[in-house]
Amino acid sequence: MIVRFCFLRVLSLALFFLLLILSGKGYSMDSHLFRFKFENGAKYIYDIWINGFVETYLPNGINKSPVNIRMQVEQKTIESTASNTKAKFEMYFKEVKMISGSDSQTLPEEGTKLVFEQDISGNTSTLSNASGWQSVSFSSLVFPENPIKPGDHWISSTKVNLQIPMDNRIKYVFTKVTKAKGRNVAIFTTELLVPEAEVEKIAPPSQMKTSGRVVFDMDLGQIHSVESDSVFGFSIPIPELNLPVFTRTSIKTVMKLSSAN
């Protein structure tokens, strides 16, 4: 039961940070005004892998369990404004499975949906949430209002309600524009900035660190890929043991656009 609880927490946190993190020439040093592009009816399929382990600190020792989750998510543009400055999306979790060797187990998130709005800068708000996501708000890659050049950085603020309301910020750094399979892409690094006081609100002692890289398809005007490394540490009350148990989760998340039509 403890291991199952930890796996579900890992998935929820990974999805959040994933969603948290979710339009050139060569290695140009020119300034660029980045914007998302919207097209009614457009569908984007993303393949996602979450790998790592969960350490559970029990009275009789440390239990280390592997994490191997495979997901496929379909993002569909439901409608966009006449000016194409804002759009409504439906995100459908087509596949959410926990893999163990040659076996797989379907997780409850499979088959669920959420609806959200996003403007061309990337500011996002949820309209209706899939089961288990009623309290989660997130922000994808958010661009500044003005043109930027390689080396520029900015910070986007967002709120999340994992157990209680918590403020956090994401630092973005624009590194370069290059080519990927013949397409113009921009590369950004990301770092989650959560004040220690905010982390401690969850269940002290706690820790939360995540950093990664986002590749943005400038031709398509959508996310091309995301990679992130995260460490989450929380104390979880376990009724059977009548005491809190500390768990530390270390995971690597990779998301790649596999289809766009």
Structural write-up:
The protein is mainly beta. The chain has a single domain (about 1-25, about 25-260), classed as Lipovitellin-phosvitin complex, beta-sheet shell regions (Roll). It contains two helices and twelve strands, in the order αβββββββββαβββ. Strands 1, 2, 3, 4, 5, 6, 7, 8, 9, 10, 11 and 12 form a twelve-stranded antiparallel beta sheet that branches. The longest helix has 19 residues, at about 1-20.
Key descriptive features of the protein:
261 residues; mainly beta; Lipovitellin-phosvitin complex, beta-sheet shell regions; 12-stranded antiparallel β-sheet; 2 helices
Brief write-up:
This protein has 261 residues and is mostly beta strands. The chain has helices at residues 2-20, 196-200; strands spanning 43-58, 61-80, 86-100, 103-106, 113-119, 124-128, 153-161, 165-180, 183-193, 207-217, 222-238, 243-260. The protein has a single domain, classed as Roll (Lipovitellin-phosvitin complex, beta-sheet shell regions).
